[in-house]
Write a structure and sequence with these properties.
Chain lengths: ~300, ~250
């Protein structure tokens, strides 16, 4: 019977919703046991949030000042020390989880299934490859521990209402000092988080400048939407890197995705495949984005976006 | 000698629209254009720039793969790498196997820096750098968009993370994986392609390195992704808003 260990993602005080999505993935394994590991300087608050997720058997709280910032090299040996009894060790397919879980897999000598999008059995998993142009089913060798990262757009967040016991765990593992956190710069914004927003407005190269992007922020604010960008827009400096949507950026599944001045390269489309409704605004009627759009509008964005803003 | 080791993977070119074989046994690769994984070109470019600034004496490129991958090693030599190591292996090479082989090369060449791509655009695994760093018991700085070498002992790396940009300091040697904004790789000039033919390319085998080609994940089935239904065209912003309202989205 599967026994699943999930590595919690958090900022020291709040559990990231990515963990609740991992819980849904774990439950699709028909697990016999579902444990969440919270490694933090002071894990109390985060562990309490994790304990409330529906279906969780127990929460392991690992306190260590070395866990103040999430460093893969520091976290991985702790996860490995906890992993012994588990058949599956899961983390989110976010930059936190992708960075960490492969290091865990390396230490365990275990195979990793990246970007799990579906579960066929405890040893058979579906995942996208080639920028989502193919779906691969992999089957793990019998008896091996499986490490996995969970594709966020494929699983809903598990609900609350649980009350799992929290166990404090003291680990005696040596932690490396060779990696040191210096700083993080995150733009302060009141807009919803791109990864979880119900509505997203994204801009491409056509916006022409960081200044040009402002018309999207203004539309997004009226819609209560997050703002995303194509790689071309990020490369050109019109938008910051955390806004990149696509194969090598963020994979999202909003209710509404509005692509503005984005051509629709496969690397971009793989990031939005799971959006419920896609709107494309592009002056080129032949642009590939129209092949996936539910509603396509051909025309000049600099004319259309202000009109749209007035109407919503 | 101060060396940088760069991992090179041969992949289907990013411009190719990949198709799944009708029998689900794989994707069509016959006659398809193959290239160096774009993130590995970025890795190599970074290594070359460090060398050009006087920060390294030698840039070595390495790949684990079938005989064909030598084409990509030649491209890397043409870009400016000094020599190439080809670890011959056919069939599926899982990240753990690639990392174990790269570790053997690391032990042999003693680089102060190993730079890999953050992900191969074919398998989209995104694992090998972290696995190598784990096996080597050294720091990793993934998704790098800026890399500064500070003296002989440390590097400062800015990473593209979901929240924005994170800066880490790591002791050397370390493994770095590249993100798109780290640099823009140079174009190869024709005379360099000729010169590259004379650069050393050494062929090894997994067996000779003592690495078992274990496959822990069987590739059971390949399928095309579900297609989205083609939608409708609207004539203006007003009709768009009306349609979205009708669908209950606005
Ligand atoms: C390794 C690798 C990874 C990549 N990862 C990603 C990724 O994660 N995400 C991503 O997005 N891309 C990614 N790409 C890049 C991708 O291949 C495309 O180059 C990129 O998505 C193009 O961005 P764009 O659509 O903004 O620009 P373009 O392709 O230049 O399209 C601009 C569009 O704007 C339209 N337009 C111009 N002016 C106007 C106007 N006034 N009004 C309306 N429309 C207008 C044009 O008709 C055109 O369709 C990756 C590429 C590689 C090689
Ligand atoms: N077979 C290989 N040979 C050399 N380098 C590799 C190989 N596989 C992966 N890499 C490196 O590891 C990176 C990440 O690959 P992956 O983990 O497969 O997504 C690639 O960009 C390469 O730099």
């Amino acid at each position: 019977m599967p026994r699943v260990l999930i590595v919690a993602e958090h900022d020291g005080g709040r559990l990231n919703v990515s963990t609740a999505r991992c819980v849904s993935c774990a439950r699709a394994l028909n697990e016999a046991e579902l444990t969440i590991a919270v490694c933090a300087a002071d894990p109390g608050a985060v562990a309490a949030q994790a304990a409330q997720l529906a279906g969780v058997t127990r929460v392991l709280a690992v306190a260590n000042p070395a866990n103040t910032h999430a460093l893969a090299a520091v976290l991985a040996p702790q996860i490995v020390a906890l992993a012994g009894p588990y058949t599956h060790v899961l983390g989110p397919s976010t930059t936190f989880g992708k960075d960490l879980m492969a290091r865990v897999a390396g230490l365990l000598g275990a195979p990793q299934v990246s970007d799990i999008m579906g579960i066929e059995s405890p040893s058979r998993f579906r995942r996208p490859i080639y920028a989502g142009n193919a779906i691969l089913t992999v089957e793990a060798e019998a008896g091996v521990k499986v490490v996995g990262t969970v594709r966020m757009a494929s699983f809903e967040a598990a609900g609350g209402g649980g009350s799992a016991p929290i166990e404090k765990v003291a680990l005696s593992v040596e932690l490396p000092a060779h990696t040191r956190f210096i700083s993080v710069s995150a733009a302060k914004t009141d807009r919803p988080d791109l990864l979880t927003a119900a509505r997203v407005v994204s801009g491409g190269r056509a916006l022409g400048s960081a200044e040009g992007f402002k018309i999207l922020y203004s539309l997004a604010d009226k819609l209560g939407a997050a703002v995303g960008a194509s790689r071309a827009a990020v490369d050109a400096g019109y938008a910051p890197n955390e806004m990149q949507v696509g194969q090598t950026g963020k994979i999202i599944a909003p209710e509404l995705y509005v692509a503005v001045g984005i051509s629709g390269a496969i690397q971009h489309l793989t990031g939005i495949k799971d959006a419920r409704t896609i709107v494309a605004i592009n002056k080129d009627g032949e642009a590939p984005i129209f092949e996936v759009a539910d509603f396509g509008l051909v025309g000049d964005l600099f004319q259309i976006i202000p009109e749209l803003e007035k109407l919503v | 000698m101060k060396r940088i080791l760069v991992g090179i993977k041969r992949v289907v070119d990013f411009n190719v629209r990949i198709r799944v074989r009708p029998d689900g046994s794989g994707v069509v690769t016959d006659g398809v254009k193959m290239s160096v994984n774009p993130f590995d070109e970025i890795a190599l470019e970074e290594a070359l720039r460090i060398k050009e600034r006087g920060g390294a004496a030698e840039v070595i490129v390495a790949t684990v793969g079938p005989a064909d991958t030598q084409q990509q090693l030649r491209s890397a030599l043409a870009m400016g790498a000094d020599r190439a190591l080809h670890v011959q292996a056919d069939g599926v090479i899982e990240p753990l196997v690639a990392a174990r082989a790269l570790l053997k090369l690391v032990e042999r060449e003693q680089p102060f820096l190993v730079i890999l791509g953050k992900q191969a655009i074919d398998d989209d695994n995104g694992q090998t750098g972290q696995v190598l760093a784990a096996l080597w018991n050294r720091p990793q700085a993934t998704y790098a968009s800026r890399l500064e070498i500070l003296g002989d002992t440390t590097a400062r790396v800015t990473r593209e993370v979901d929240a924005g940009l994170e800066t880490l300091e790591v002791d050397l040697p370390a493994v770095i994986t590249t993100d798109l904004r780290l640099n823009e790789p140079r174009y190869v000039k024709l005379p360099d392609i000729m010169k590259a033919k004379k650069k050393p390319l050494e062929t090894l085998t997994l067996a000779a390195l003592g690495v078992e080609q274990r496959q822990q994940l069987k590739l059971a089935r390949f399928e095309p992704p579900p297609q989205r239904q083609k939608g409708i065209r609207v004539k203006d912003a007003a009709e768009l808003v009306a349609q979205l309202k009708k669908k209950g989205i606005l």
